[in-house]
């Protein structure tokens, strides 16, 4: 368990800013305490500072997890967000996509969002911007990347992809061993 290096911090915050923009500071300075990000076994954890000090009493070999896992660094140095970060990203998301009930199950099974399943999309969403995917009842289902901008979505045919799948709540069941 260690703080992120400057390069890791840069890569991690660039990925987070694709989804929540400048709201990253709201994750760190919260009214219920001070939070930080720590790296353990290539995974980035979001943890309250007093809990981090308690976790420091456990040897690295025996420490499996602490706080909430936001994602992991690949061997190539890229960062991939995990679905366990959804509860923290959803309230601060700048761009959102809502899917119709008929497309909700398809997204939760790991498929991309097509225009035919698109319920709504945030105005002025640029292409390739990170989005949080909701159902029509405003329940966050996962996150992805906008394949088309809001203006392009209005004029495309129903079988066009409008959002690429990145992670969804169905991963808790499909990949439960890898999410630790």
Automatic annotation (TrEMBL):
A Pfam family it matches = UPF0113
| Any GO MF annotation of the entry | RNA binding
At the top level of its lineage, which domain of life is listed?
Eukaryota
Domain PUA residues, every copy = 95-170
Q: Which GO terms describe its cellular component?
A: nucleolus
Where is it located? Nucleus, Nucleolus
User: What's the chief localization of this chain?
Assistant: nucleus
Q: Which UniProt keywords apply?
A: Nucleus, Ribosome biogenesis, RNA-binding
* Listed GO biological process terms: ribosome assembly
CDD domains assigned to the protein according to its UniProt record, in alphabetical order: Nip7_N_euk (cd21146), PUA_Nip7-like (cd21151)
Query: Subunit arrangement?
Result: Interacts with pre-ribosome complex.
- Which family, according to the similarity comment? Belongs to the NIP7 family.
* Known function: Required for proper 34S pre-rRNA processing and 60S ribosome subunit assembly.
The molecule here is called 60S ribosome subunit biogenesis protein NIP7 homolog
